[in-house]
Write the structure tokens for this entry.
Amino acid sequence: MLNVEVLNVSKRYGYQWALRSVTFSVENQGLIAILGPNGAGKSTLLKTLATHVTPTTGVIKVNGLNLHGNMEKFKEKIGFLAHESYLYDELTVKENLLFYASFFSVKESRVEEEIEFFKLGRYSDTQVKKLSHGLRKRAEIARSIIHEPEMLLLDEPFSGLDKESLSFMINYLEMQRGKTIFICSHSFENVEKICERAIYLKNGLLMEDKKL
Ligand code: ADP
Ligand code: MG
């Protein structure tokens, strides 16, 4: 597990502050929920942890090192499931995973294992645009962990999932206890069953930080 320190992190888009001096730290903890209503700043916080967004002020340290100053080093340690899809519609499930695997020199055999694990075998040669929402999300999770990251960042992983994909996702996350996982959600549902800690944001402010 990684130690993560978020220190006075603020992010401004134009005149809008999406995060306002957010501070918390995570040490030896597995599943952490980031909760709050729409517009609270959850996705911005996750994107900042994923290094896709740089804080306007403040700093994030991972294992004592400045995250945004060492992005190359941390790239292989971080997996990010964004709200929007990173899969290519025209490529098949397998082609997508092989494409992302190639960035990290991940072997084809690992891609095949991953496809089996996520029960995507039947859809391996199906173009992503032809998948249902739940299957696509499963492929998206497979994509985000193809390089076996130590920290996983999941933006609304449960939204719009059918029953089968939802129970798959929950079982999967329960098996990942050794990893540092941040889960953003606008709803407490599903999250409360698996997370050990909840951080509440509202208007970019950290309102509450509690043990579950
Ligand atoms: P949440 O995920 O909790 O719904 P976001 O982090 O997406 O919240 O957004 C927080 C605030 O920042 C919102 O007011 C949103 O409109 C604004 N915001 C987010 N991303 C951008 C962006 N790329 N450009 C401008 N404003 C943004
Ligand atoms: Mg969001």
Remarks:
- The longest strand covers residues 16-26.
- Residues 42-43, 83, 155 surround magnesium ion (ligand 2) (CB under 6 Å).
- The mean pLDDT is 95.
